[in-house]
Amino acid sequence: MGVFAQQQRKWWALFGVSIASFLGCVDFTIVNTALPALQADLGTSVDSLQWVINGFILALSSFMVLVGRLADLYGRKRVLFIGLSVFGLASLAAGLARGIDLLIAARVAQGLACAVLYTASGAIVANAFPAHEQGRAFGVLFSVNGVGLASGPVLGGVIASAFGWQWIFLLNVPFVLLSLAICSLAVDESRGEQQGLDGWGALLLLIGLPSLVLLIVQGGAWGWASAYSLGLLAVAVLALAAFIQVERRVTAPIVDLALFANRRFVAAVVASFSLAVFYCLAFFVMPLYLALIRGDSVQTSGLLLLPTTLGVAVLSPVVGRLVDRKGPGLLIQAGLALFVLSAVLQAGFDTHTSLAYLLGAFGLMGLGWACILGPSTVLGMTSVPAQISSVAMGSLMTLHNIGGGLGLAIGVGLYRRFAAADLAQTSGAGTASWVDAAVAQPEQGVVLLSQHLGQAPELLQGWVQQAFLHGYQAVMVFLALVLASALASVLLLLRRQNQAVESAEHAHG
Fold first, then answer.
1. Matching CATH topology for 1-194 and 258-509?
2. Which residue, 2, 16, 63, 69, has most beta carbons within 10 Å?
3. What mean pLDDT comes out for the span 252-278?
4. How many CB atoms lie within 10 A of CB 361?
5. Which class for 259: exposed (0-12), middle (13-18), buried (19 or more C-beta within 10 A)?
6. How far apart are CA 416 and CA 433, in angstroms?
7. What is the mean pLDDT of the chain?
8. How many CB atoms are located within 10 Å of the residue 497 CB?
9. Would you say 389 and 381 are in contact if contact means Cβ atoms under 8 Å apart?
10. pLDDT at position 371
11. pLDDT tens sequence across 76-134
12. pLDDT in tens, 18-54
């Protein structure tokens, strides 16, 4: 029994892994608002600075499936402890870094460790709780994750300005130690089936996935038709095609491709993928709208985004309890429909949008997020055998991250294309490079345009706002279409699955 009573152990285990998972989610978003302080202190270029974020994303997305497999093979508790220890040491190294190269290396190590924190934590919770309590448990876990993702940008700005950017990393260390202490007492070791690791599959995955993620992250900057982008695309396609062939033949695959023959699991993937597309892209343009069109400060923007960020945090435990009673399918469908409605409402934003309309659209996004985040994981995890739960979690989260990166890359491209076309037509400047620059940095748009055009700043400001709104509306129409397609797919997948179950029951009856 140990220190905790048996009934309490699972809740202490949830508390311990929630701390670990929270740290991983916070570090996904906390650096963004601290970038100006980092740049000023380290005296580095914007391109180098981007790798503080991109290095983390690259390592996180590339290793999730592999560490999920390692956790199933060698023990989820053991792998979680290794991940937490690496994360703590990497956070210490990042906080003490005096140069950009060491900071980027530390962030890559953090991303690798977070791949463990995301995958092993979900598998440990699935092992600790019986099926009828998993909705509630995952509701708590993903409420904590939602708070981490949403509070990261605010915490980054506050901590960096109050104590210095180093403390956004150094503060992780005591929480890592707390998580290790709780998990050592409350978490039971669990494994999947005892089979070896597929070496060739691992090698091909570690070539293919980083190539794909790097292409998504850097393709826009390099140019999608550049030699770098096309070369990486070729490497990614060849390596991942070879990986699929290898996985079909080995007895102990890293990714069990049978997962993707399971309609419930595929429905969970579609929901999780489209969720990431939505929030990664929406969170890119929403703060810009508040600053550029409404003229709100960073603090006011943070308050106006609370219906979204607080919505997912507060509602996730409620949604979790509903999952235990009603199942995850209906909630996921409701969440996707709410996202479509939020995107349609946001496509109607203009320079005179009322506060009630704006908060309503943001609130629907928070409600939709809460309805998808936990339930999609419960659907994915309950549709597969317990012995491959870490691999299932790793596959789900990897595709979630790829969805976020891909959605952001396509969405930002759409925004720039529509906004630049509008600004070029209004200003009569055609395809001048400074028009693209004004669109890419709308906060500096008036300054950039005034260097080439003789109009009054007020007129230029109107042009920049009109162009931004044109791009914003294109992004929201794109999101509405993606989420409507996801909703149709999930309805079809779950309906066919239910029909298959009913047919099997009739056959046995």
1. yes
2. 69
3. 87
4. 23
5. buried
6. 12
7. 82
8. 18
9. yes
10. 92
11. 889 999 999 999 999 999 999 888 899 999 999 999 998 888 778 877 887 888 877 77
12. 999 888 888 877 776 677 778 778 877 666 777 887 7
Instruction: Measure Cα distances from 320 to 326, 376, 418 in Å.
Output: 10, 11, 40
Long-range contacts of 485-488 (CB under 8 A, 24+ apart): 485/274, 486/270, 486/271, 486/273, 486/274, 486/336, 487/333, 487/336, 487/337, 487/340
Burial environment of residue 375 by CB neighbours within 10 A (0 to 12, 13 to 18, 19 or more): buried
pTM: 0.73
Distance, in Å, from the CA atom of 332 to the CA atom of 318, rounded to the nearest integer, reads 14
Q: Average pLDDT in the 447-452 region?
A: 62
Closest CA to 439 of 448, 428, 430: 448
- Mean pLDDT over residues 70-76, rounded? 83
Secondary structure of 277-308 as H, E, C letters: HHHHHHHHHHHHHHHHCCCCCHHHHHHHCHHH
Looking at residue 451, what is its pLDDT?
62
Share of the chain above pLDDT 70, in %: 85
- Tell me the three state secondary structure of residue 31: coil
Residue 356 is predicted with a pLDDT of 95
Q: Is the pLDDT of residue 239 over 90?
A: yes
Cβ within 8 Å of residue 348, ≥6 positions away: 357
Q: Which residue do the tokens 């999920």 mark?
A: 68
Q: Is the dihedral of CA 85, 213, 149, 322 positive or negative?
A: negative
Tell me the two tokens of residue 215.
Answer: 């292409």
| 165: Cα within 13 Å, side-chain hemisphere | 20
Nearest Cα to 220, choosing from 62, 430, 56, 405? 405
Q: Which amino acid is at 370?
A: A
The CA angle 220-155-39, to the nearest 5 degrees, is: 50
pLDDT for 505 equals: 46
- Put residue 187 in one of left, alpha, beta given phi > 0 → left and psi -120 to 50 → alpha: beta
| Tokens of residue 243, six digits | 């990986």
Distant-in-sequence, close-in-space partners of 433: CB < 8 Å, separation ≥ 6: none
Give me the mean pLDDT over the 144-152 stretch: 73
Tracing tokens 């708590």 back to the chain, one arrives at: 140
Which fold would CATH assign to domain 1-194? Answer: Growth Hormone; Chain: A; (1.20.1250)
Q: How far is CA 427 from CA 289, 416, 434, 462, 467, in A?
A: 21, 16, 12, 11, 10
Domain map (residue ranges) of the chain: 1-194, 198-251, 258-509
